[in-house]
Amino acid sequence: MAKYTREQRQRAVELYVKYECCAADVIRELGYPSKEVLASWIDELAPGERRIRRGPVPGELKRDAVLKVASGELSSREAAEAVGVDSSVVRNWKRQLLGDAKGLMVAKREPERGDSSQQDDPDALRGEIATLRADLERLRAEQRAMEIRLAIMKGAAELVGKEPGADPDNLMYFVKSVF
Fold it and tell me: What does DSSP assign to residue 56?
């Protein structure tokens, strides 16, 4: 007598083929069989449907898939289908390649014209404008500070390049002329 009924074997193969579950998911869901037994059932009940592992995926394909997921161009499932792996694999690649960069901002696709959720909300737009203005002021202040540092460094470089006995007051004159 067989250990598993025909209905149990068909259910396992159906999960694998119809719902595109991986072998590990089928086994986890049903609590049976082993990967080898499931592979033989698939070959018997649905010939040609078993997905064969192709080996390691080249690094360039991994990076391309992660880039498309991180930029919002594709979902992890879509990128996984393009490469021929499970979506969890793509998410793992993303975690490995980007690390725990929670603050990492990647440009997403522009919203479609039909997406008017934020475009029609004046309060959200005002808030975004205020945030952008604050960012602009912060960047302008940073630019001014960097210009001052650059002027000081240029003056110091000019002073260091002069003959011994050069007047250090020239440096202050140079810095004052920048302001």
Answer: P
Q: How is residue 112 written in tokens? A: 């479609």
Residue 42 has pLDDT above 60, yes or no: yes
Q: What is the DSSP letter of 165?
A: T
Q: Which of 19, 23, 44 is nearest to 32 (CA)?
A: 23
Rounded (10°) CA dihedral 95, 96, 99, 101: -40
Q: Would you say 3 and 32 are in contact if contact means Cβ atoms under 8 Å apart?
A: no
Residue 20 has pLDDT above 80, yes or no: no
What percent of the chain has pLDDT above 70? 75
| pLDDT tops 50 at residue 159 | yes
Q: How far apart are CA 97 and CA 107, in angstroms?
A: 17
